[in-house]
Amino acid sequence: MATSDSAKHYDLIAIGGGSGGLGATAIARTLGLKTLLIDANADNIGGDCLNFGCVPSKALLHVSRLVHAAHESEAYGLRVEGKISFEKVLKHVHASQDHIRNHENVEWLEAQEHQDVAIGWAKFVDKNTLEVEGQRYSARRIVIATGSRARMLDVPGLDEVKGLHTNHTFFNEERELPKRFLVVGGGAIGCELGQAMQRLGSEVTIVNRGERLLGREPEFASEILERVMTREGMTIHHEAEVERFSEGNIAHVKKGGKGISIPFDEILIAIGRDASIKDMNLSAAGIKTDERGNLIVDDYYQTSNKQVYALGDAMNREKLSHGAEMHNRDLVRNILIPIKKRHTLAQFSWVTFTGPEVATFGLTPKQLKEQGISYEVVDQSFKDDDRAITGGYNEDAHLRLYVQKKGLMGKVYFLGGTMIAPQAGEMIQELILAKQTGATLNDIFSKIYPYPVASRINQKATFTQREGGLGEGLKRLIRWWWRV
Predict the structure, then answer these.
(1) What confidence category does residue 470 fall into, taking pLDDT thresholds of 50, 70 and 90?
(2) Same domain, 356 and 403
(3) pLDDT digits over 14-29, tens only?
(4) Using N-to-C axis directions, what is the helix angle for 19-30 and 321-336, rounded to 10°?
(5) Can you give the residue range of the structural domain that contains 384?
(6) Predicted local distance difference test score (pLDDT) of residue 482
(7) Angle at Cα 279 formed by Cα 276 and Cα 281, nearest 5°?
């Protein structure tokens, strides 16, 4: 391995202090390997998840749900008055971040055995050497885990907009609640933060370029979520685009050939994210990018330089914190075991933390068709579920599973599915485990659930599948045998 004589040498270097880089160096140092973590900014250790994404948004959602529950209690005689202090809400957000930051900061990391940290912009010198603030570092293996940045609109008048935010700036300043809050984008970030702001007291409008909210989810989930959000007072425009801004706080939107003017006090741009790999001198390391400037990465996390890997958002596939966790596990396994494991989403899952939550796991119908896998759909309504009825969400929840019969005994296995319901992300966990371990629908069917836990809906779906699969001929045989 050719390296600069002046370079400090490590077993592993990770570029980026978010979920991907922190995970890679944590695994490596646990194995006793000498590791270096590089990040451009010491204040951003923890990455998007801690600083701009998962942690602050979930702290905000927590408060918004408290407020929403308080207003729902008015139906039972409670009187709710007063106005939310958005400043205090953001203080809670910042306190949550600070608590987690106690073990995600430069000082804590440098106190760990086999771990060094360098702060500054990393640029490649050659295939296994980086330079940061004039100091060179080399490693046998380098991981690019530089995360992603929010995509911005490119329309006239944007420079004059007041109260302009992406998720990278939204949580920064403690301030008063905006009266009118405009969201551009109908994906997870837009839906989560938009609904939270509506529940806190803003008048929220979503402008969505697509045909429906959460376009990657099944239509039934989008329909239920939109029904709930509009009932809560949100205004949603589909197949609509912002064409320009005027006066610093008016968005001019084109929808169906007509123009709409939407005034706002703050605006959140949530139209997607792009991998952050600029100005790293990748060519010096023989690292290739595609026509859109994204890293070319194979299914084993390797770039065109076989000593350099990419994971997390920098890989430009599933841009989720636990995606980076999965990538790290696969990567370490591939380094240590000769039989390589390919990147796959067969065991992957994700949750949009709206109210109700939308949770998806395993393979989608599109992926199943692409892979030529036959499957059966199990649709399970919550309308007659006892816990859903007592909890008041039976009309706004649904579960859909994709299953497959295998073998002579016709055992039925889970392939994937989506649930929309309060706490769906928690209720779906046993289905994720069942898929991962090869447990069958019969295992869920045979389980004794304490009555009336919410997750009994999973067992009800297995009853629905069995009932549909018995057939009248088998039912007649069972009746005959019963009466013999």
Answers:
(1) low
(2) yes
(3) 999 999 999 999 999 9
(4) 30
(5) 349-469
(6) 85
(7) 115
